Amino acid sequence: MSTKQKTSGGFTSLVATITVALCILIGIILYVYVLGNPANFVDNDPTAEPLEGNFLGIAHKGGFIVPFLIAMNLIVLIFSIERFITLAKGKGKGRTDKFVEDIREKLDNNQINEAIEACDAQRGSLANVVRSGLTKFESVSADTTLDNEQKVEAIKSELEEATALELPMLSKNLSILSTSASVSTLIGLIGTVLGMIKAFAAMAGGAPDPAELATGISEALVNTFLGILASTLAIIAYNFFSTKIDTLTYSMDEASHSIAQNFSAKTKKK
Q: Could you tell me if 169 and 86 are in contact, meaning their C-beta atoms sit under 8 angstroms apart?
């Protein structure tokens, strides 16, 4: 029976798709009923100018692109929270470097069962990988059909398989954040261009219409702001979580190397 475990967590593809769709719906609702609330405009008329200093009314003047930009900001926020929770679960309890050092010490003292118990207590992706290696360590030690080199290779193979099971869970949905960083900027740019077209159109007939000119400029700036905001948050979140994943991956490799080296050293002494 396989001894490998896989840490579960994070949104599945279906849940992620539904979440994106819900964010778009929420963006539309916020645009119509919150930003478009008549109380945000002069004479309670959404077609009129927003009240002075009323950001909600100003944002509403950004046009039909705004709901999608609101959705992009929500997507970045929700998937950042999702990744944070999932990676915290994958990290397990306590510091990873201390855990790896503890496993090394137990291996040096030939305390395999105690090391497995430490994995059960730590949990998380790193602990699952180490536990798989330690369990294989025990089984091949008692296997007389394999030579020492084959035993070491069997342990390495088990550790590689366990790592391969964990990494997809750690990096899952990161592509949504990276995509959001690019798409948000492009959507904001579309809104900016449409706003500038309206502004220049208001100036085309000689004396510019102040209201039309202001609407066009507002639309351009609002879309630019929301697009850049979503893109900035997505880039920060993506880099932050990528660093976390790299740290966990390094710890897995370090622990795997320690297990294989420890077994190899013990077999050479025999």
A: yes
Residue type, 225: F
- Neighbour-count burial of 54, counting CB atoms closer than 10 A to its CB (0-12 exposed, 13-18 middle, 19+ buried): middle
Quote the CA–CA distance of 115 and 131 in Å, as a whole number: 8
Token digits of residue 25: 């719906």
Task: List the structure tokens of 38.
Answer: 């008549």
Look at residue 8 and tell me if it is in a domain.
Answer: no
Q: What is the reported pTM?
A: 0.84
Q: From CA 104, how far away is CA 167, in angstroms rounded? A: 22
The pLDDT tens digits for 52-76 are 888 898 899 888 999 999 999 999 9
What's the distance, CA 126 to chain centroid? 18
Instruction: Note the helical H segments in the chain.
Output: 13-29, 55-60, 66-91, 96-108, 112-122, 124-141, 148-171, 174-203, 210-269
Could you list the residue range(s) of the whole structural domain that residue 29 is in? 13-269
> How long is the chain?
270
Residue 63 covered by a domain: yes
- Decide: helix, strand or coil at residue 41: strand
Q: Read off the DSSP letter of residue 50.
A: B
Q: Which two tokens stand for residue 16?
A: 């992620």
Residue 239 lies inside a defined structural domain of this protein = yes
CB 215 within 8 A of CB 61: yes
Angle, in degrees to the nearest 10, between helices 96-108 and 124-141:
10
